[in-house]
Amino acid sequence: MASDDVSTRFPFINLEKAIARAELLFSGDKSGKPMAVPTAFELWSYSPKSSGGFQTISALKMFGLLEDEGSNAERKVRLTSKARRFFLDERDDVRNRALEEFALNPPLFKILWNSDGWSEGIPADTVARSHLKVERGLNDQSSRSLLSVLKETLHYAGIRTGVQADEVVESSLAPRSPPPLVEQERDSMSNYAEETPARETPTRASNFVIPNDRPIIFDMESVTVSARLATAEELEEFIAKLEKLKPLMPSKH
Q: Would you say the pTM of this structure is higher than 0.85?
């Protein structure tokens, strides 16, 4: 297991939903003054003691959108200066840079991205989950949840990534503009992984994945392709990537 001093905790919602909930606080009080926790819960349509409300506070703090002060009945929250600037600034380039910062602010996301090499390409799901369980101490359910939240967050922030496979293919994720407020989701799943699961051996197969619904999966014996291409240029680029796999394919007997 990795020796980095990093918790197994991570946001239970993706950045898009976190931004929407932060915007509710911004709309509720644009002055940016500290807000009582029950008031924030009311803006999020949570009951005063809802676990979903406390999970939302924790998630927004991890993304760098929220800070708090005090404790118990005296606890208050307010948007960070970066979050307020994001909602006040109308320039797309400024907002896009801020989204990139928010996306990789959670400590575990930052470690996976910078120390574990995921900036070069998020491994195929089976390999990624094995890494999260064996190297980062997450249980199976939490590893699946983290992978989903991280992928959605990176896509929303428009962060591009390569592929961990000898540079066979490259990512084609395109930035997305921040959408309007999203519907509040129900208080449901647990947001954090704190248990240490049984160790599992990661798969040794080489798996290559192209994000944005254009995957290539190569297991050293065969290539599985599922493509949705809109232009002749995309088709040409996709074929070129497949050509790079030919030297690695087994010969016909």
A: no
